[in-house]
Write a structure and sequence with these properties.
Elements lengths: L2 H15 L1 H7 L5 H8 L3 H29 L2 H19 L4 H15 L1 H13 L5 H30 L2 H21 L14 H12 L2 H13 L2 H16 L4 H25 L5 H25 L4 H12 L2 H13 L6 H25 L6 H31 L2
Helix pairs in contact: 1-7, 1-8, 1-9, 3-4, 4-5, 4-6, 4-7, 4-17, 5-6, 5-9, 7-17, 8-13, 8-16, 11-16, 11-17, 11-18, 12-17, 12-18, 13-15, 13-16, 14-15, 14-16, 14-18, 17-18
Length: 401
């Protein structure tokens, strides 16, 4: 693969991975407008975010076996077409119930991008380069929150919230063209893999029996669900409690995305001196400390808007190290079952994200405590799983040495 091809492939894989972030971040500034237009509360609008997370978590389990059985591109085309149709459904939704349902369907289609991108990384790059490639993908993903909410905020003010979904549909059409003309096929279809429920479950069980996968997929998944609590709670906290405008919220969200981008780029250098396992552990410990200070400060009333944004920035810095390294450690043991491993890993992450966002909505009390408390709970749980999983990994390594 030439350097130019390498760049194009990374760009397309990154774009596939940003389907979820764009679908989530772009409509966040529109929450108050959606609530007014559909005559519902912010908490009810937040449920359309929760339904999206549920759809991603469930859909990835479907696409994992499909991309192993039929190759990477056919399921990718099918899923993106479902996403495209559901996106038009969101644009024309006249009730919150319909919007929640269309968001669920939108996620079921769009999540194919996450599974296919991670499986293609395993297909197209050597094991030793996986963590670095995931760092580059995380960079592309991290740039999307700098663009999506700002674009969404201005689109909402200029054209109304329905325009956001029309923009997403246009982006999807361009993505389909790029996949068709420029993306390699990756690992070919494997006709020996059955799609019967028993065989599919067997493939998932093969992946789940690997302690390294289970430890880092669970610990990384729940730790990286902390930003989902932030995503669900920040529109209400910043726009309704601290009274920033939709455009200002977009810029704040963009600024906080730098907290993920900067450490993500530092990850390339850190991997020359430290292992991925060491970096994941250090980042989760760091976030536990910062999350504790964040909760204490909100509870004690120490922070104004600027102080809260600063603490959120410091907390989110850990995500740039957790996500790529946990993903690399989860995927490294697999080749034949890479699709199933990617599906399970992504499903865990989005299932935890759905729980985190749903918790923020359920605990809504017109303060920032539900948001920051859920963020802290996510990283504490991730740290506990990481510590417990280390002994299982060591025992497994000794038994198979």
């Amino acid at each position: 693969m030439t350097r130019r091809q390498h760049f194009v492939v990374i760009l397309i894989l990154g774009a596939l991975s940003t389907i979820g972030p764009f679908s989530i971040d772009m409509y966040l500034p529109a929450f108050p407008a959606i609530a007014r237009d559909l005559h519902v509360s912010i908490a009810q609008v937040q449920l359309s975010l929760t339904s999206y997370f549920i759809g991603i978590a469930a859909g990835q389990l479907l696409y994992g076996p499909l991309i192993d059985r039929f190759g990477r591109k056919k399921p990718l085309y099918a899923g993106l077409l479902v996403y495209l149709l559901a996106t038009f459904g969101c644009a024309t939704a006249g009730s919150i119930e319909l919007l929640i349902g269309m968001r669920l369907l939108q996620a079921l289609g769009g999540c194919v991008g996450l599974v296919a991108a991670q499986a293609l990384v395993r297909d197209l790059f050597p094991v030793g380069k996986i963590a670095s490639v995931f760092s580059l993908l995380t960079l592309v993903i991290a740039v999307s929150p700098m663009i999506a909410p700002t674009l969404g905020g201005y689109a909402t003010v200029a054209f109304g919230w329905h325009a956001i979904f029309l923009i997403l549909a246009g982006i999807t059409v361009l993505m389909l063209l790029a996949i068709h003309y420029f993306l390699p096929n990756g690992r070919p279809a494997d006709a020996s893999l059955s799609l019967r429920p028993q065989a599919v479950m067997g493939s998932f069980l093969t992946v789940l029996r690997q302690p390294q996968f289970l430890t880092y997929a669970l610990a990384g998944g729940i730790a990286t669900s902390a930003p989902f609590a932030y995503i669900a709670g920040s529109p209400d906290v910043l726009m309704n409690i601290y009274h920033v405008s939709a455009q200002q919220y977009g810029w704040i969200f963009s600024f906080l995305a730098i907290a993920i981008i900067a450490p993500n780029q530092l990850n390339h250098l850190l991997l020359k001196r430290f292992t991925s396992a060491q970096l994941v552990y250090a980042a989760v410990v760091y976030q536990t400390i910062m999350g504790s200070l964040l909760v204490l400060g909100v509870w004690a009333g120490w922070f104004g808007a600027v102080g809260l944004i600063a603490m959120l920035f410091l907390f989110l810095c850990g995500q740039g190290l957790i996500a790529p390294n946990a993903s690399a450690l989860s995927m490294a043991p697999f080749e034949r079952h890479a699709g199933s491993a990617a599906a399970l890993m992504g499903s865990f992450r989005m299932a935890f994200g759905a729980v985190a966002s749903g918790t923020v909505s359920a605990l809504h009390n017109n303060t920032a405590l539900p948001m920051v408390g859920t963020m802290l709970a996510c990283v504490v749980a991730g740290l506990a799983i990481l510590l417990l999983g280390q002994s299982s990994i060591r025992r497994y390594s000794h038994q198979h040495a």
